[in-house]
Amino acid sequence: MIVNEKVAVDHGLKKDEYAKICDLLKRTPNITELGIFSAMWNEHCSYKSSRLHLKKLPTKGKKVIQGPGENAGVIDIEDNDAIVFKIESHNHPSFIEPYQGAATGVGGIMRDVFTMGARPIANLNSIHFGSPQNKKTKNLLRGVVHGIGGYGNCMGVPTIAGQTSFDSSYNGNILVNAMTLGLVKKDKIFYSKAAGLNKPVIYVGSKTGRDGIHGASMASASFDEKIEEKKPTVQVGDPFTEKLLLEACLELMAGDSIIAIQDMGAAGLTSSSIEMASKGNLGIEINLNKVPCRETKMTPYEIMLSESQERMLIVLENGKEEQAKKIFDKWNLDFAVIGKTTKSKKIELYFDEEKVADIPVNTLVENSPMYDRKWKKAKLPKKNKFKKEDIKHLKIIDVLKKILANPNICSKEWIWQQYDHTVMGDTIQKPGGDAGVVRVHGTDKAVAASVDSSAVYCWAHPSTGGKQVVCESFRNLISVGAKPIAITNCLNFGSPENEENMGEFVECVQGIGEASDYLKFPVVSGNVSFYNQTKDEGIKPTPAIGGVGLIKDYKNMITMEFKEVDNLVLVIGKTEGHIDQSLFARNILDEKNGPPPEVNLFNEKNNGETLLKLMDNNLIKSAHDVSLGGIITAVSKMCIKGKKGVNIKKPKYLINEIEYFFAEDQGRYIIEINKKDFKKVADILHKNAVHFDELGTINENELYINDKTKVTIDELSTSNKSWLTNYMSK
Amino acid sequence: MKSSVITFPGSNCDRDMDVALKKFGFKNKMVWHADAELPKSDLVVLPGGFSYGDYLRCGSMASKSKIMRSVINFANSGGMVMGICNGFQILVETGLVPGVLLRNKFLEFICKNVFVKINDKKNKYFKNVDNEVLEFHIAHNEGNYFCTNDQLKEIEDNNQIAINYCDENGKIEDQFNPNGSLKNIAGIFNKEKNVLGMMPHPERMIDRSLSGEDGSLFFKNLINNLK
User: Which of A145, A328, B180, B215 is spaced 20 to 30 Å from A581 by Cα?
Assistant: First the structure.
């Protein structure tokens, strides 16, 4: 096939990018080479629109062993233990084919983690669908949930937490973000940097087929009416093979024969080989006839661009081939020596004894395009139209029941019951709490993880929204008694070529950076997903933040359900009555204008750290952060989970009841304490200048508000638990 | 007491079972599916997971693996063999226990705590358990027990039903059946009651911090009964 500008454009390259390739090579590339460039230079692999801005994120910290740039980030959790974790998007494939798209998303992120030598110990996910009334939503939700479960359950890794939202901006572009945590010994972490000359390059895992060719390019473009035609670009997952690959890799890693290892994810053999060579400042020579293929007559182009799953590339020490092969034979996996490292600093491919590609590695990596895209500053939010007097008359209980049954608040049990969340025998906090918690096997330590996003806030004011998501992650970890350590981010946005979308990206990243810097909660890994748009319509900006924290003694973990009648309930943090952009405003008043709640980083940090102090003193019986739906929603959930009631009263503030109970001011928690500890708790809070309200006392089974109205917890529980089950069974 | 846990390709509860058995005093060995001989054992466990990726039919390929010949001989000579979840699926494929396990009634994987009522205590698994009802944990996609009417009659005549899904008070009703199993069957014995297949995972219930502690009760009792 003759390569020209048109062919290059069909590969998703821009005309000037094609010109740059010819310039760098000082000749026209052949079709295999063009394929390789298109795979390396697309948005998904090159981060060409985002790199400039991602550089500004804080990525260092005392506990950070490895920041962004490797397969996943690594943090220190003491005693020579480390946690490897990352979140990644699989949005585009999941919309085209929800089961396989979601499944391979989970498979891919687990591979990123065990490539580094870590055994995956927990999965999380953040999934976002269109409006429940959209005719595609139900099947997409079912397919995605089955796909996530299908892969994670088979791998035997518990899915311990997640987040699901519905919003019409996802009607044409759902989001599927998968996160994995792995456990590794600090001195047994594996990296992707090749080293040494003439070292054998080994291919292991599944055979290469024609699936997923150009998957990464597909994920770097918007959708249009021809979306059905893109199905062949979706990879097909085989969790069974991945389970074998996991065990085989960990068995090989127990020895000392691996120099570098890299999974074949997006852009398959192309990106894995090039990344290893680039990091090691070496060349790699591959004989493509040696690559195990599932189909006959595969061309070099297809072999290099296939995104067949469950494959790894390894650079081995000389002379260790036989020993390594034995392990992969035992697990019935392919093992082939396909090439070697060279000093050429080029990627050289041979097929049928002919050289089919010859590209200097730096042209693909360092010289890849980087754009300083134009972006527009977000407009200030419009003023809301509702009047305070209008909301005064609403009946709190009616509003509360509606909010508890809202798709974005309701219980997601229908979803997480389909995920094995208890395998590995260390899950001590299941889905449905503030964060999932797993013990570090065989120790007293436990790791907490949560994944959050607030698209509505980010849409209303991107930099505040960006800050808020990081703070919410911080709060969720603290609520279970964990000390927050670091985050991973999955940045889901529309087209970077649209100045408004690019502006949302830039400002959200700025907000994330500011909060993570202030809270000493650095970003250690992540992923950017642009082009989440169909034709001209993009999603609401949706950065998802995965936070990880440590609990030194798992017996001190805190859960959110109310524990004991007569205990006191307090609100930590000040309630100003911020209603704009709250779930209440958007759904009860149908008011979409106004700014999101302000984020005060000092208060976030101070309130959170003071709560940890109270926990250290064993003064906290239960805790829950206040987020969507405000104080009364948070309290109701604690009642439902604990099967207890509570008498609550609005303190004598200037704001009205509705504002007090439904406002979404930040930096707040609900806590339960024993009456006899009140003075101690109040002293610590005062000493640290933390505002708190005395909200009420726990009772047997009723929510009793201001001595006026009441409702049974059973009734609230029904409102909360029935929406999703009913929706899915209709 | 010596126990053996078989690891098939795709087993994923083998480690959890190893941890549980050791916690309650068993000297446990992990045995690879391609081995021919079982080590000397007082109990053999086929663990949960997705042996051979559940391809073809859950448990069918594992039931033909090399080690299974020894396991079947061991069972036929009266040895204690327990299959949990995928292990139960393997047992029905070998024919050591009667019936089959179909896809869950609502076509969805289910992971949650359930209550089971002990139907028969004249066996080494449940003898001396004080409780009538245990809180166990299930996590499966194919746990919908089914057999022919003739088989069912035989099973009932021989008292081969081990445990049934029920509520916390032991009431066995359709609404407490998580997967559509015939007669709410959660576990079943062979005729001689040395082989037990059950869907619930007692190994996930061995610590107050986990889903509960009724698994501890089960294992403590089991090792005492074997002594």
Answer: A145
